[in-house]
Specification:
The structure is a homodimer of 195-residue chains. By secondary structure, chain A is of the alpha/beta class. Chain A has one domain (2-194): Alpha-Beta Complex (Maf protein), CATH 3.90.950. Chain A has helices at 10-19, 44-59, 97-107, 172-178, 180-192, and strands spanning 2-5, 24-26, 63-71, 115-127, 130-142, 158-160, 165-166. Chain A has a seven-stranded mixed beta sheet with strand order 2-1-3-4-5-6-7. In chain A, β4 and β5 form a beta hairpin. The longest helix of chain A has 16 residues, at 44-59. Chain A is globular. Chain A starts with a strand and ends with a helix. Chains A and B meet through β4, β5 and α5 of A and β4, β5 and α5 of B.
Chain lengths: 195, 195
Amino acid sequence: MEILLATGNAHKKLELSEIMPQHTFLTPKDLGINFDHEETGLTFLDNAQGKALALQKITGKPVLADDSGICVPALGGAPGIYSARYGSNPGEPDLESPQRNALLLKNMEGKEDRSAFFVCAMTLVFGEFRHYTIQETIEGVLTTEPAGVGGFGYDPLFFLPDYGKTIAEIPAEEKNRISHRGRAGSKMAELLKDL
Amino acid sequence: MEILLATGNAHKKLELSEIMPQHTFLTPKDLGINFDHEETGLTFLDNAQGKALALQKITGKPVLADDSGICVPALGGAPGIYSARYGSNPGEPDLESPQRNALLLKNMEGKEDRSAFFVCAMTLVFGEFRHYTIQETIEGVLTTEPAGVGGFGYDPLFFLPDYGKTIAEIPAEEKNRISHRGRAGSKMAELLKDL
């Protein structure tokens, strides 16, 4: 199925293409659409559903939106839905990923509880009243310095005790099998099989 | 799996048990819990997710919530999320189903477009950050008088052109295969297979 992505994030597009290889993903840009949706939700679910519904309304096409981030209990759940904008002020461009990671590590200095979890809310909309949302999560522990070059975003800080490695150090196929986005995406693919 | 339902509606419990026979459904009452959640959402999705999250928070158990209703374009989408309360004033008890049906037919007098659709938003929550939401729909046409004794709610008014019958006139197994709730429930059952 041809699915329009409500994202301009090339990393997410690549991962989704790997997780759901039976589908073809387009971005708004591929259709010549300038989709600049302001994320006003207070939860991953709100944001994913809001983006997907907005783009479906504009295009009439099946739309997939992914809202994801890292939540750190010792920081009261931050960065959470602000993961991509962590450390930047309103109106300013987002920090680059290594700067955000450095900021997160700095904010964790002296914290005893270094547990963290990734969350991915994924919504597929076929029409105003047919949609599926899957929210999945994966638990880990924050490292004290980045390790690994795979994945993107906070992956080099996210240590998986079962693997003895960060998510950025395990193969993409393995990440896509166990990650928040991988779990959500493979469940979504199952739902699409019957359509 | 033992799943707690965020509803006191016996009809919904029965239908869900038929649609997902591999699972056991309990109500808050079965656990001695008085769950009286005020529905403040503006969409089926909001309401289903709100109810499910609230009851999961109280109990820690896997919770399923279903928010559903009938939408009539000629009435601007009414009764919509107010389907169960249609025609009753705040603070008053809800009308009985036959009274609501009579009111809907009365409000449709003289309308040319008698199309209608049922919507079911179903949310399953396993923990604060793992949940699945499926929203499904079925399209039909409003009759001018009730027909059939199966199902519940607005079913006797909901005519399916492909069957030449109302949903209340077709066997429960068939309703459960094609209805908004049946479609959402069978997709949900698919997602639960792997857990």
